[in-house]
Amino acid sequence: MKNFLFVLRHPPHEGMGIRESLDMVMTVAAFDQSVRVLFLDDGVFLLKLGQCTQNPNLKPTSPLFAALEIYDVEGLWVEQESLAERGLSLADLILPVQTIRREEMAFFLATADIVVAC
Amino acid sequence: MGVLHLVSRSPGESLALAQCLERAGASDAVLLLEGGVYAAIKDSVLAPKLAGSMQCVTIHALAPDLRARGIAAEEVIAGVVLIEYEGFVELSILHNPIISWS
């Protein structure tokens, strides 16, 4: 078994990227690999509460992540500084997440066998 | 008739907003749309820079794009004018030329 870390760095509604990324996360998890997901930089906006559901072309991205629990994804991680720099706090996010500080990031990244940036 | 500057990328992904503000003139308008609306969040570290620019240019943000991203009106920097699509049309008519900073 390998330790996979998926790093999401882009905001919602920039093409089909997020759905493809989630497909990849779920596929890897389905093969009983260890999977963590890290929301970094503008990726933290993917989890933001309150995204309007009315526009069929701009569906909210945050509920997509609620399903990850079922797939045994071991942890959703958010970098504290990415949140703070964007005026957000944990209360603005749709799910409980684990937080990590920027100064810990080098070690955190190094603990993964495979990092998938998406 | 001033210039309308369209900024559609998030400040976390692109320098478009900063680069636009360096070049905007006194009677110009800036419209934040799509990912560009993330620049309107008042508690972000970049907010003071945008607020400072409002002395010479007017800053607008497209409300439907704020709503799609879960940014409530209360979270937006004071002085940023929220507009609907009708307001976008109006800005397009009142300004010339229109420049996209994507």
From TrEMBL, chain A:
The keyword DNA repair does not apply. GO terms for molecular function: transferase activity. It comes from the Bacteria. SUPFAM superfamilies: DsrEFH-like (SSF75169). It holds the Pfam family DsrE. Keywords: Transferase. The keyword Transferase applies. Belongs to the DsrF/TusC family. This is Sulfurtransferase complex subunit TusC. It comes from Candidatus Methylumidiphilus alinenensis.
From TrEMBL, chain B:
It comes from Candidatus Methylumidiphilus alinenensis. Pfam families: DsrH. GO terms for cellular component: sulfurtransferase complex. Keywords: Transferase. Gene3D superfamilies: DsrEFH-like. NCBIfam families: sulf_tusB_dsrH (TIGR03011). InterPro entries: DsrEFH-like (IPR027396), Sulphur_relay_TusB/DsrH (IPR007215). GO terms for biological process: tRNA wobble position uridine thiolation. Signal peptide: none annotated. One of its GO terms (molecular function) is transferase activity. This is Sulfurtransferase complex subunit TusB.
